[in-house]
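Researcher: Last one for today. Full complex below.
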Amino acid sequence: MSELKTTAPPNNGAAQTSQTKEFLAGAAATFPLLVGAAPFGIIFGTLAEPNGLSALGAILMSLIVFAGASQFIALGLLAAGASIPIIIATTFIVNFRHILYSANLVAKVKHLPHHWRAIMAFGLTDETFAAVNNRYMQQGDLDKAHWFYLGSFLAMYSNWVFCTYIGLTLGNIFPQMQNWGLDFAMSVTFLGMVVPYLKSKPIIAAVLVSAVLAIVSYDFAHKLGLLFASFSGIAVGISLMMLENRKQAKSISPAKELN
Amino acid sequence: MNEAYLISGMFVATFSVRYILFAAAGKVRFPPWLNKALEFVPPVVLMAIIAPAVTMPKGELWINFDNPWLLASIVAVITAFVRKDLLTTIVVGMLAFAGLKFGLGF
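Model: Here's the assembly. Have a good evening.
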């Protein structure tokens, strides 16, 4: 690569090569994650029409919303006859985890022009966060790392839209596919994402409360169960965390008095 | 027409969350306790989605050893604890589910 730098025209050419390199590296780093996302997109496409979303609506949703979990949930809510405001509110809660990702990345992207940040925000999925966060934690030159981000985003995006289309087509050829239990791909992906968080008692308690309440409240009017379970779980977790902090503060303060 | 409302609404709900901190470009900083509190959001919300999906896959509570959704979830959780790798968890969980549902005819 060093030879290339000396023979290429100064600056421009070298800059372009490193952009392309970063872009391709971003796509490559995201590739394993596509294995989990692809069945997800296919199943979304398969289930769209049986759940009451048109084929055009499904493609547009994948193109415009680009959020796997909430698109999936929206189908379930549509089939259950939930109103549009409830589906939108649920989307908001389901995607709220992304604010954590952006809080983690903002220091790395704040110097970029506004249009870059807007595109990056649109492409901020679980998978791209995982790939990009790894890249940013590496040592070395981060000058062109936003091209890495773009590569990861476009790999995810094109895969997602393409798989939605494949799913729509397959669903029409094999209508019985909706009974195969393919929705399990989503559950297993999320289980794999939840487990690494289970490191403290407040989080474990919050997750258990959320699980039980989500089951109990499944038949709640207007399909508000998911919102109810989420808020309750978070409230329980934060309360326990504050209790723990207070205990720690108490056990520290007498020691201070001794000194 | 309804779908247009639905998709625009979902776009706003999704994009606003992803964009707000990038737009502020580091001028907004969360206090540490809020950062801590936000860490509860992903696992809790994801679990609120998973729990009914695997314990009531057909709309009614089905907590038994003949429920392949539930059994394969247990396999996936064990895999996730042991291997700590998302892709392995997804593949093992899917294989377990396929084996139980189609291999053993659960």
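The CA atoms of residues 141 and 241 of chain A lie 38 Å apart. Confidence is low (pLDDT under 50) at residues 1-10 of chain A.
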